[in-house]
C-alpha cells in the first residue's frame, strides 16, 4: 500500500495496448500451436516499454576489453566517457565497444524489434494484469539457441535495476530468450495478492513459476538460467526446491546468486536498525518505483518475516545437475561478505563458483572517487561494476564453458550400487582410441534418485587401432564382449576392425539403405551448418530402423549386468551415427533432453585426439564433395550456398549442443515421442520398453 492516495493515482500507467499472456494455454496443443500462440500474442514489432529510471541500453561486442575506455549515461542523460583517471575524452577516441541509447521513463521509450513489454498472468495467482516484464527474443532462427534466461530483482527493486538491463542486452545478443520482470507490488506489475501481507517469498515463488511456465508452455524453450539479485536469491532457490523439482520434475542448469542473503534471520536486525519502530508500526516505509514513479511503499512486517524465516541449508537439496555461481561485491554494504563463502561451503566446489568484485557494493557500484582501473562506465560519480557482472554471466553461459562445466561435473560417475567410475575410462594416450566414454550415471528425468546404470554402455570413435594394453583393459576391466560397428562396408574395409577372440563385433550399417538423393540431402545437412544436422540425422535414422531394432533386441535378449558384460557402439568419429543411437538409448531410459544434448557435445572434447581423421577431413576441397555427391547433386544442394569447403569441413567435425536439441525437437514432431517411435517403428512393445528401463536403470 502507498503512503498517500494521490501518489497511487498519479503513478497509474495505461496498459491498454500491452499484451497479457496466459501462461496456461490448452495443454493438448502441440508445441507448434503453443509457439504460434506466443508469436501471435507478441508480434515482432516495436512496442513501448515502461522503464523505471534513466539507464543506458548497452549493445556489446563479442568481448569487452576492460583496458579500453567506456561510456555510460549520467543522471542528466549526458554521455560521460571515462578512462582510468576519470578524465573526459572525445567520443571519436573510443573503440567500437558499446553504443548507448538514453532511456526515459514510463512507456516513452520504443524498444528494439526483438524486445516486447508484456504482462504474464497465471489464472490461479493473478487477479489483474499479472506481472510485467520485458522479453527479448533471438533475432533469427540462426541465433536462437532454444534457451531462456530469467532475471530477478531484489527488495523494493524493479526490472531495470543495476545489472539486469545490461545482462539482458548481452544474453539477448547471444541468442537467448531473456525475460526480466517486476515482482508483484513493484514496478509495473499488479498489486500484491494481499497488500496487508506484502511481497512474501511464497508470492515470489508463484511469480517465478509463472515465468517458468511462460518459457516452457509458450516460448517452448528450456529455462536454462536464473540470475537473481539480493532478496530474489532466496526466492529463486526456494522456487527450485518447493515447486520446480517436486511439481515439474525439472531442473535449471545455472543459478546465479548476486549478493544473496545467507543467514535469513539477520534481516530482522537490519530492518530494526533502519526502522526502530518497525515492530510497533507492523512494518516500515521505503522508496520504490511503481508505474514509473518513485513512491513511498509500505513493507508489512509479514513480508520481512517471510524472508527472514528461510532455512538456507535446505538448498543443498537442489538437483545435483545444477551449478551455482555466486557474485558479490568486496565492499558489500547491505549484508556481511561472509555470506559469499558460506554459500561456497554450502554447495561445495564441485558445483559452485564464487567471484568477488573487490571495490563493488551490494548493487555492484563503486565507492565515491574509486580509481577506475578497468575504465568502466561511471554512473552518478561511481564506477559501474555491473559491466563486470555481465561479463562473468556471459562467459559462464558460453557454449564452450557450459560444455566444459558439464564434463567437469560428470567426470566421475557415482551411485549407491557401484563404486565411483570414470566417465572417460580409456584415455587415448593409453589406448589409442578417441572419444571413449561411459554413458551411464545420468539421472532420469522422472526420478531424482534413479540413474542409468554405469559400466555397461560405452561409445567411442573407431577403435580398430587400439593398443594391446588398451584392448586388455577393454576386455578384462571393462568386460566388453560385444561391439556394434555402425560404419559402412567401405569404411570398415578402409580403416579395419578390432580383431579379438573375446569380443564379438556386430556390423550394423546405418547408411546401407540410403539412395543417391538421400546421400545428397544427408551431405547438405552435414555441410551447410550444424543447425542442418537434424536433416541429416533424420535421414540416417529412418534408413537405419532395422539396425536400431537389432541393437535394442540384443539388450532385451541379454541382461548385460547379470552376465557381467558391457557393450560398445561406434562409427568413425563416434559423433553422428553413434550420437543418434546414444540419444535413442538415453531417451528411452528417461534421461532428460538437456543432459542428452550436453552428452552429445562432449564429442567436441573426445575428438581432439583424433588428429588423423581431423586432418583428412580438413584437407577436403570442393572437388572432393563434387566426386562424392556427383556434379548434379552438388550443384543442386551445395554450390549455390555461400559457403567455402573449409567451413563445410569445420561443420562436419562439429558437435554442438544445439544440433542435438533441434534434432530431438524434430524427432518428437515426426514420431510423437520416444515410446511411440519404439512401438510403431521398431515394433517393440510397452512391456519391452519397461524391461529396458528396469534392467538398465537403478
From TrEMBL:
InterPro entries: AB_hydrolase_fold, Prot-tyrosine_phosphatase-like, Tyr/Ser_Pase_IphP-type, Tyr_Pase_AS, Tyr_Pase_dom
Pfam families to which the protein is assigned, alphabetical: Y_phosphatase3 (PF13350)
Domain Tyrosine specific protein phosphatases: 542-586
Gene3D superfamilies: alpha/beta hydrolase, Protein tyrosine phosphatase superfamily
GO molecular function, one term: phosphoprotein phosphatase activity
PANTHER family associated with the record: TYROSINE SPECIFIC PROTEIN PHOSPHATASES DOMAIN-CONTAINING PROTEIN (PTHR31126:SF1), TYROSINE-PROTEIN PHOSPHATASE (PTHR31126)
Annotated protein name in UniProt: Tyrosine specific protein phosphatases domain-containing protein
Amino acid at each position: 500500500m502507498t503512503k498517500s492516495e494521490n501518489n497511487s493515482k498519479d503513478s497509474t500507467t495505461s496498459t491498454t495496448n500491452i499484451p497479457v499472456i496466459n501462461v496456461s494455454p490448452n495443454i493438448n496443443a502441440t508445441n507448434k500451436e503453443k509457439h504460434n500462440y506466443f508469436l501471435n500474442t507478441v508480434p515482432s514489432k516495436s512496442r513501448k516499454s515502461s522503464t523505471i529510471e534513466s539507464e543506458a541500453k548497452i549493445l556489446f561486442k563479442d568481448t569487452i576489453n576492460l583496458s579500453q575506455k567506456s561510456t555510460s549515461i549520467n543522471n542528466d542523460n549526458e554521455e560521460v566517457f571515462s578512462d582510468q583517471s576519470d578524465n573526459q575524452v572525445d567520443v571519436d577516441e573510443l573503440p567500437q565497444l558499446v553504443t548507448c541509447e538514453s532511456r526515459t521513463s514510463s512507456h516513452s521509450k520504443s524498444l528494439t524489434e526483438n524486445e516486447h513489454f508484456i504482462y504474464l498472468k497465471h489464472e490461479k495467482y493473478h487477479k489483474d494484469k499479472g506481472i510485467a516484464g520485458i522479453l527479448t527474443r533471438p533475432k533469427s532462427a540462426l541465433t536462437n539457441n532454444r534457451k531462456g534466461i530469467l532475471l530477478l530483482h531484489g527488495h523494493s527493486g524493479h526490472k531495470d535495476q543495476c545489472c539486469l538491463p545490461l545482462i539482458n542486452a548481452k544474453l539477448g545478443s547471444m541468442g537467448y530468450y531473456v525475460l526480466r520482470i517486476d515482482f508483484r507490488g513493484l514496478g509495473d506489475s499488479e498489486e500484491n495478492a494481499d497488500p496487508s501481507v506484502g511481497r512474501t517469498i511464497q508470492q515470489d515463488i508463484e511469480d517465478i513459476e509463472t515465468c517458468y511456465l511462460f518459457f516452457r508452455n509458450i516460448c517452448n524453450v528450456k529455462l536454462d538460467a536464473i540470475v537473481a539479485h539480493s532478496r530474489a536469491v532466496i526466492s529463486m532457490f526456494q522456487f527450485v526446491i518447493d515447486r520446480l523439482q517436486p511439481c515439474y520434475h525439472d531442473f535449471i542448469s545455472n543459478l546465479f546468486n548476486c549478493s544473496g542473503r545467507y543467514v535469513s534471520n539477520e534481516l530482522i536486525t537490519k530492518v530494526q536498525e533502519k526502522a526502530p519502530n518497525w515492530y510497533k508500526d507492523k512494518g516500515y516505509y521505503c522508496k520504490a518505483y511503481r508505474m514509473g514513479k518513485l513512491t513511498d511503499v509500505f513493507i508489512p512486517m509479514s513480508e520481512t518475516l517471510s524472508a527472514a524465516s528461510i532455512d538456507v541449508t535446505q538448498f543443498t537439496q537442489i538437483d545435483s545437475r545444477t551449478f551455482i555461481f555466486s557474485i558479490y561485491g568486496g565492499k558489500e554494504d547491505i549484508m556481511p561478505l561472509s555470506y559469499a563463502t558460506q554459500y561456497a561451503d554450502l554447495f561445495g566446489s564441485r558445483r559452485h563458483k564464487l567471484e568477488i568484485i573487490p571495490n563493488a557494493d551490494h548493487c555492484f557500484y563503486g565507492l565515491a572517487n574509486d580509481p577506475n582501473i578497468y575504465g568502466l562506465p561511471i554512473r552518478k560519480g561511481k564506477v559501474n561494476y555491473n559491466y563486470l557482472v555481465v561479463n562473468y554471466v556471459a562467459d559462464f553461459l558460453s557454449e564452450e564453458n557450459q560444455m566444459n562445466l558439464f564434463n567437469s561435473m560428470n567426470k566421475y560417475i557415482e551411485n549407491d550400487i557401484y563404486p565411483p567410475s570414470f566417465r572417460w575410462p580409456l584415455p587415448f594416450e593409453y589406448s589409442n582410441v578417441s572419444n571413449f566414454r561411459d554413458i551411464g550415471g545420468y539421472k532420469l528425468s522422472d526420478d531424482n534418485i534413479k540413474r542409468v546404470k554405469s559400466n555397461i554402455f560405452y561409445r567411442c570413435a573407431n577403435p580398430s587401432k587400439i593398443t594391446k594394453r588398451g584392448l586388455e583393459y577393454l576386455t578384462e576391466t571393462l568386460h566388453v564382449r560385444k561391439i556394434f560397428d555402425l560404419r559402412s562396408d567401405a569404411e570398415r574395409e578402409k580403416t579395419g576392425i578390432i580383431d579379438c577372440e573375446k569380443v564379438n563385433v556386430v556390423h550394423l550399417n546405418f547408411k546401407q539403405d540410403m539412395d543417391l538423393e538421400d546421400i545428397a540431402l544427408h551431405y547438405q545437412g552435414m555441410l551447410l551448418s550444424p543447425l542442418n544436422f537434424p536433416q541429416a540425422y533424420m535421414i540416417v535414422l529412418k534408413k537405419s530402423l532395422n539396425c536400431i531394432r537389432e541393437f535394442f533386441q540384443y539388450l532385451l535378449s541379454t541382461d548385460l549386468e547379470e552376465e557381467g558384460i558391457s557393450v560398445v557402439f561406434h562409427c568413425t568419429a563416434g559423433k553422428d551415427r553413434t550420437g543418434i543411437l546414444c540419444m535413442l538409448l538415453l531417451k528411452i531410459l528417461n534421461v532428460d533432453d538437456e543432459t542428452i544434448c550436453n552428452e552429445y557435445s562432449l564429442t567436441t572434447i573426445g575428438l581432439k585426439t583424433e588428429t588423423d581423421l581431423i586432418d583428412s577431413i580438413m584437407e577436403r576441397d570442393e572437388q572432393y564433395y563434387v566426386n562424392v555427391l556427383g556434379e548434379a547433386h552438388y550443384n543442386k544442394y551445395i554450390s549455390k550456398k555461400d559457403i567455402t569447403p573449409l567451413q563445410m569441413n569445420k561443420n562436419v567435425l562439429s558437435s554442438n549442443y544445439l544440433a542435438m536439441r533441434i534434432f530431438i525437437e524434430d524427432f518428437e514432431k515426426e514420431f510423437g515421442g520416444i515410446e511411440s517411435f519404439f512401438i510403431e517403428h521398431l515394433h517393440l512393445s510397452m512391456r519391452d520398453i519397461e524391461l529396458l528401463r528396469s534392467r538398465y536403470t537403478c
